[in-house]
Amino acid sequence: MNVTIIGAGYVGLTTGLALAYIGHDVCIVEKDNRKIELLKKGKSPIYEKGLEELLALVKKNVTFTETPEEKVPDSDVIIIAVGTPPLENGEADLSYVEKASEEVADCLQSGKSYTVVIKSTVPIGTNEKVSMQIKRRLKENNISCEVNMASNPEFLREGMALYDALYPDRIVVGAKSEKAIADLQQLYSPILQQTFTPPHFLQRPNGMKLPHFIVTDTTSAEMIKYAANAFLALKISFINEIAGLCEKVGADVVDVARGIGTDRRIGMSFLNAGIGWGGSCFPKDTSALVEFAKKIGYDMPIVSAARKVNYKMRKTPVEKLKNHFGSLNGRTIAVLGLAFKPNTDDIRESPAIDIIKAILAEGARVKACDPVAIENAKKALEKENVSFFEDPYESVEGADAVILATEWPQWANIDFERLASRMENRVFIDGRNYYEPEEIEKAGFTYMGVGR
Ligand SMILES: NC(=O)c1ccc[n+]([C@@H]2O[C@H](COP(=O)([O-])OP(=O)(O)OC[C@H]3O[C@@H](n4cnc5c(N)ncnc54)[C@H](O)[C@@H]3O)[C@@H](O)[C@H]2O)c1
């Protein structure tokens, strides 16, 4: 099929390359010229495992442009995957989706049939609104064509984006139009049936079950995305709330999580206590859900509480350090990890950034370390006095304490003796419960995890 994707971010680029890989002709429209230039040179503007390799493989099936007019008129399916960042008041900013929809509408041609898909995470009712907006625009432009709208929310995880695009648990489609549903079924058919040959660098998981194809109305599809993120966010906040109590009574939350997670009704995933969730989705989507509900007079105390617990967790590393040192004034603190989670360069709503700001506010210096997120973090911390390192051993030089904020896999076997030998004082705050406390204590550190 001929497919145009609007937006070459984490979602648009991954989806576009995955669709090109399974045999579609894909055009990716991106208004940021820097991203287009990089993509045309075969470079990925974001750090995401496998994207550059896939880019090289699908070169013949994919084009990149700044102008939607290039391919939208001849597309069967147009997928809008632009950002929906939070507004000051916590609601989702729909201006990018609205602008992209208008730009798409202006390219549609009379006598043709198009399926227009909203993949961006949008508040309940947005698909309806955008559909009306496109119809209005077509009328103004005096264009008569068939537009079938569909909501197709995305569930990929950053750091695993390509894997999730090729081997998803489910594909959700919300639409009134049979044609839109049929088009999306055809579009995703090689993924739904797993008939494609996996790329050599991203094998199909052993025993993979075929993805569910869940068809519903647009409102329910929009709701599914928010409900999924809210549930995952509150599962983490739940274990973090239990972790707080574990600290008070001397229980170990890691054992507690294993003890409850092995119950199949609960499940082990998303039960790792730590400094909480961040990123470009959970914070803004839980906030958008609560704010949307408020607007229609509905209270969501569970989701609100999950947010409250989450933001409290970010304060705990500095509280622990203040309890230990009395004051942080004049101290040097190393922060390992800037990305909101491992295997991504995304620092949007990363707990590490808030923690760094809180340390600086206490009058301490920060030495921050990350293998790939430094460039993005520098933009977020440009007014702050922070030095950056890619090497964890260099970052702890002369430090009084270390905070592990992101559990990068390359730090799994870090040499604690070597870290300790470079430090002024030996305090280790394991914000992700990533290490065995005994191992760290052996190197002479005072270890503080979360709920242990
Ligand atoms: N990042 C994730 O893990 C993830 C997962 C699931 C869903 N989502 C949702 O998907 C959407 C996109 O998220 P993202 O992380 O990919 O965002 P992003 O900010 O990484 O990318 C959005 C891209 O769209 C481009 N853009 C904006 N308006 C445009 C226009 N009119 N024409 C062309 N390009 C335009 C921007 O320049 C940017 O490159 C959001 O609604 C998000 O909530 C994100």
Brief summary of the model shown:
With 452 residues, the protein is an alpha/beta fold. Helix content is 41%, strand content 14%.
Q: Care to describe what's here?
A:
The chain is α/β, with parallel strands linked by helices and 452 residues long. It folds into 3 domains: 2-208, NAD(P)-binding Rossmann-like Domain (Rossmann fold); 225-311, N-(1-d-carboxylethyl)-l-norvaline Dehydrogenase, domain 2; 314-448, 3-Layer(aba) Sandwich (Rossmann fold), CATH 3.40.50. It contains 17 helices and 14 strands. It has helices spanning 10-21, 33-40, 51-57, 95-105, 126-140, 161-166, 178-192, 218-249, 253-261, 282-295, 301-313, 316-325, 351-361, 374-380, 392-395, 416-421, 437-442, and strands at residues 2-6, 25-29, 62-65, 77-80, 113-118, 146-151, 170-174, 212-216, 332-336, 365-369, 386-389, 401-404, 427-430, 446-448. It has a 6-stranded parallel sheet, sandwiched between helices. A 6-stranded parallel sheet has the order 11-10-9-12-13-14. Strands 7-8 form a two-stranded parallel ribbon. Helix 8 (218-249) crosses helix 11 (301-313). The longest helix is centred in the middle third of the chain and has 32 residues, at 218-249. It is elongated. The mean pLDDT is 97.
How are the elements arranged and paired?
Layout: E1 2-6, H1 10-21, E2 25-29, H2 33-40, H3 51-57, E3 62-65, E4 77-80, H4 95-105, E5 113-118, H5 126-140, E6 146-151, H6 161-166, E7 170-174, H7 178-192, E8 212-216, H8 218-249, H9 253-261, H10 282-295, H11 301-313, H12 316-325, E9 332-336, H13 351-361, E10 365-369, H14 374-380, E11 386-389, H15 392-395, E12 401-404, H16 416-421, E13 427-430, H17 437-442, E14 446-448
Parallel strand pairs: 1-2, 1-4, 2-3, 4-5, 5-6, 7-8, 9-10, 9-12, 10-11, 12-13, 13-14
Helix pairs in contact: 1-3, 4-5, 8-10, 8-11
The structure holds nicotinamide-adenine-dinucleotide.
Nicotinamide-adenine-dinucleotide is lined by residues 6-12, 29-32, 35, 81-84, 96, 99-100, 103, 120-121, 154, 156, 158, 280-281.
